[in-house]
Specification:
Layout (H helix, E strand, L loop, with lengths): L2 H23 L14 E8 L5 E8 L4 E8 L4 E9 H9 L3
Antiparallel strand pairs: 1-2, 2-3, 3-4
Amino acid sequence: MNQRSLASLILINAVLLAALVVTAFSPSQAEAQFAGPRQFLMIAGEVQARGPQAAVYIIEMQSSQMVVARFDSRTGDLNFIDGRRVSDDLRDVMNGR
């Protein structure tokens, strides 16, 4: 292997390494939408009724449906706790109930 081909290989490896670093550390928007153009909002929080446990609140924006789920790290299961329509709750608050 001569000096010129070695320099070419080093240059190609440096370019590939730079491309790998750029793609690995550049944040991208997470898109996991399915079933048409629905928009979801996910909020991490805690559930106090069952002791302080981590939970995820998932809201489907068009219908204002919300579900609360918690992840059981021991079993790897996602357990759905409850669901409700957020717009009904907001209407009750606005009406003073």
